[in-house]
Design brief:
By secondary structure, this protein is mostly beta strands. The protein has strands at 2-7, 10-13, 18-26, 33-39, 46-52, 55-58, 66-71, 76-81, 90-96, 105-106, 110-115. The strands form two sheets. Strands 2, 4, 5, 6, 9, 10 and 11 form a seven-stranded mixed β-sheet that branches.
């Protein structure tokens, strides 16, 4: 079992920055990749970024503005969000992807609100 706890959300103005953190605990040795998703009100949850070893992947909407990184020793993944826009508003969820042989996990989410 893996537990994920996000932090760092808040209310900012457009153009400002936030850094989200996701701390993993439990069976962290089983984690190969960690990522972030977000969900705006009334919309489905969508992919934001993924860190898989040293490989990163981003949704086109955040490329060049967001950066995902990790600290293996702390079992923590970060999402640095720069140049925030109102359309970035939503609940941001940390995710450990599931595979055919192991389950995935989700955090409880942290709210990010970007005002104009």
């Amino acid at each position: 079992q893996v537990q994920l706890v996000e932090s760092g959300g808040g209310l900012v103005q457009a153009g400002e920055s936030l850094r989200l953190s996701c701390a993993a605990s439990g069976d962290v040795a089983s984690i190969d990749a960690m990522g972030w998703y977000r969900q705006a009100p009334g919309k489905p949850r969508e992919f934001v970024a993924l860190l898989d070893g040293t490989t990163t992947k981003y949704d086109d909407s955040v490329k060049g503005r967001f950066s995902i990184s990790g600290d293996t020793a702390k079992a923590t993944v970060y999402l640095q969000m720069n140049g925030l826009r109102p359309e970035d508003t939503g609940v941001y969820y940390c995710n450990v992807p599931g595979t055919w042989y192991k389950q995935g996990y989700w955090g409880q989410g942290t709210q990010v609100t970007v005002s104009t």
